[in-house]
Write a structure and sequence with these properties.
The complex is a heterodimer of chains A (about 120) and B (about 110). Chain A is built from no helices and eleven strands. Chain A is mainly β and about 120 residues long. Chain B is mainly β and about 110 residues long. Chain B has strands at about 5, 10-15, 20-25, 30-35, 45-50, 55-60, 60-65, 70-75, 85-90, 100, 105-110. In chain B, strands 2, 4, 5, 9, 10 and 11 form a six-stranded mixed beta sheet that branches. In chain B, strands 1-3-8-7-6 form a five-stranded antiparallel beta sheet, with no helix packed on it. Chain B starts with a strand and ends with a strand. The mean pLDDT of chain B is about 90. Classes of the chains: A mainly beta (about 120), B mainly beta (about 110).
């Protein structure tokens, strides 16, 4: 049973460019959340997708956008990259269950460096 | 913004000793979870404790939750070198797959 997978592992971009990160959820999961983790900090919630729609959003600008596909995989897009966007981007998947909270399982992350 | 604060920020102990990490949070929660992160890679889920639970065990891990003090602790007994990692607490405040709000983590080093 494959866990959460993310691609690519590492990415180097320059300021002003655009980037797309990809995530495949754990088998059987239908919800994908994205987090940004700056060096030495805890992860910060970007947004969450369920049933191909953005369900919740954290305090991130519109430069950050996403998509969820019918197979539940997801993409995170960041436009007009800034130096401050350099971080580890983590994807987490879970299953929405009525009346309870399920554990969120994280992928290995994508390390984005903006030069 | 960060919900919680882990204490201490860094902890260094000898192999075989017990390690205790604390987490405080600010708003009411539904669940609190602990995660481990090795070398800046993905987070590994350790344990989830619900707001109506006070203590939970999993192997060498013991987690307590005090909702009146808005705090939790993670105890790792008989530590091993492989336990060297950063440990994060994360809270959520609703049903379903709610967003997790993380603290800044405790960096644990186990010395052989």
């Amino acid at each position: 049973d494959a866990g959460v997978t993310q691609s690519p592992t590492h990415l180097i971009k320059t300021r002003g460019q655009q980037v797309t990160l990809r995530c495949s959820p754990k088998s059987g999961h239908d919800t994908v959340s994205w987090y940004q983790q700056a060096l030495g900090q805890g992860p910060q919630f970007i947004f969450q997708y369920y049933e191909e729609e953005e369900r919740q959003r954290g305090n991130f600008p519109d430069r950050f956008s996403g998509h969820q596909f019918p197979n539940y995989s997801s993409e995170l897009n960041v436009n007009a990259l800034l130096l401050g966007d350099s971080a580890l981007y983590l994807c987490a998947s879970s299953l929405v269950l009525p009346g309870r909270t399920d554990t969120q399982y994280f992928g290995p992350g994508t390390r984005l460096t903006v030069l | 913004s960060q919900q919680g604060e882990e204490d201490p920020q860094a902890l260094s102990i000898q192999e075989g000793e017990n390690a205790t990490m604390n987490c405080s949070y600010k708003t009411s929660i539904n669940n609190l979870q602990w995660y481990r992160q090795n070398s800046g890679r993905g987070l590994v889920h350790l344990i989830l404790i619900r707001s109506n639970e006070r203590e939970k065990h999993s192997g060498r891990l013991r987690v307590t939750l005090d909702t009146s003090k808005k705090s939790s602790s993670l105890l790792i007994t008989a530590s091993r070198a492989a336990d060297t990692a950063s440990y994060f607490c994360a809270t959520d405040s609703g049903w379903g797959a709610q967003k997790l709000v993380f603290g800044q983590g405790t960096r644990l080093t186990i010395n052989p």
